[in-house]
Amino acid sequence: MDSRRSALPPESDTPVPRPLLPVVGQPAPERVDAARNRRRILAAAARIAATHGVQGLTVDLVAGAAGVGVGTIYRRFGDRAGLVFALLDEHERSFQSEFMAGTPPLGPGAEPTARVRAFLHALADRLEAQFELMLAAETSAPGARYRSGPYAVHHAHLVALLDQARPPGTDTHFLADALLAPLSASLIAHQRRTRGVTARDVKAGLDDLLRWSLG
User: Fold this and answer.
1) How far is CA 55 from the centre of its chain?
2) For the chain, which residues score pLDDT lower than 70?
3) What sequence ranges are listed for the domain HTH tetR-type (predicted)?
4) For all residues of the chain together, what is the average pLDDT?
5) 54 CA to centre of own chain
6) What is the C-alpha separation between 172 and 169, in angstroms, rounded?
7) Is 57 a domain residue?
8) Same domain, 137 and 184
9) Burial 62-92 (b: 16+ CB within 10 A, else e)
10) I want to staple 134 with a disulfide (CB 3.0 to 4.6 A). Which of 63, 172, 185, 208 is the partner?
């Protein structure tokens, strides 16, 4: 699981090609056979998760479906949690491309406050679409969410936007953490159980939070 952190340069409103930032489980350069095995394993894991849910996703089941040994999966992904993080990778890469170089307001070209709102709403949509996987990844180990590559990238992206939107002296690092906090899968699981919160409710709450914090 790759949890490297990368500082982001100040953003420009001109969309320019740039490499994607680190994501969890981003693979290193691979041999052709290793890359082929990785694709087979992830395709099998995705099918099993879609059919049986994330709770039914076991290393033994994935190995059998992919036609590889259990040891191959452990060597490649470390454990079941690493496999879950890897399933989220492709979606994360696509998401990074959208907010770093896509169309506004999520991508460059809109006011910073509009981009913050679009970014948080897009994260809420991702969480809704991949809730079980994100919850499994987030709860795989204490602090897993905050050590992950995507969290570091999302946080740095928000800091860059907040630095443009807030007066000098604002602790934008703290504010970025505060804005990401409501998008914890475990928090939303609790809110669903206790209050029946929906994806629309989450977005409405984020808008309230933005009005209080950004005006």
Assistant:
1) 20
2) 1-30
3) 35-95
4) 85
5) 17
6) 8
7) yes
8) yes
9) bbebbebeeebbeebbeebbbbbbbbbbebb
10) 185
- d(CA 34, CA 168) in angstroms, rounded, equals 49
Rg of the Cα atoms in the chain? 18
30: three-class secondary structure by DSSP? coil
- Residues 87-122 have pLDDT tens digits of 888 789 999 999 999 999 999 999 999 999 999 999
Residues 154 and 191 occupy one common structural domain = yes
Any residues with CB less than 8 A from the CB of 81 and at least 6 apart, and which?
1, 136, 137, 140, 141, 144
Whether 207 is in a domain gets the answer yes
Do both 208 and 136 map to the same domain?
yes
- Tokens 């994100």 appear where? 134
108 lies in the same domain as 71:
no
Q: Which tokens go with 19?
A: 């490499």
Return the DSSP state at 25. Answer: T
State the pTM of this model: 0.76
Residues 42 and 144 in one domain: no
What pLDDT shows up at residue 2?
Answer: 42
